[in-house]
Structures are given as C-alpha cells and as structure tokens.
Amino acid sequence: xxxxxxxxxxxxxxxxxxxxxxxxxxxxxxxxxxxxxxxxxxxxxxxxxxxxxxxxxxxxxxxxxxxxxxxxxxxxxxxxxxxxxxxxxxxxxxxx
Length: 96
Prior knowledge:
The protein contains 3 helices and no strands. About 0% of the residues are buried. It has one domain (about 1-95). The chain is mostly helical and about 100 residues long. It is elongated. It has helices at about 1-25, 50-55, 55-95. The mean pLDDT is about 85. The chain is about 75% helix and about 0% strand.
C-alpha cells in the first residue's frame, strides 16, 4: 500500500510541474513575495485568465490531478485505518 501511495504521489508531483509550466504561460507572478525574497516588478506583463481557464491542457491537468488526489486520499485513509488496527492489536497483546 505504501509503494502504491508513493507512486501516486509521484504522479501528482509530475502533474503539478506540468500545471506550473502551463500556468507560467498565462499568469504573471512577478509581484508575489511570500517567502521574503526580493520582488521583481510586474514589468507590464498582464495575466490572461480568460485564455488560462479556456485552455484544454489546463482543464485536463487539473482534472487529472484532482482525480489522483482523491484516490491518494482514499489510500491514505486505508493506511491510517490499518495503522490504527495494528495499534489496537498491539495494545491487546500487551494486556495479556
């Protein structure tokens, strides 16, 4: 289960990288400074949200990433339930 979880996490990382690449074609992030580094000025580039949200690649990547994340969440829930059951069994065994 853990290996499958890691494979799905890797797939999500790849999709995030692809989305980041596509996003940089449409959106200007020049004025963001969330971690304290020097901010580059906007330089007159404008974000094109209309084209961004109409791009089939954006839609497909977001759709695929969302699907993978739901599946990943299901598997994480299964792993947590297995861990809880193992802990219960250990606690029962220690009581004996």
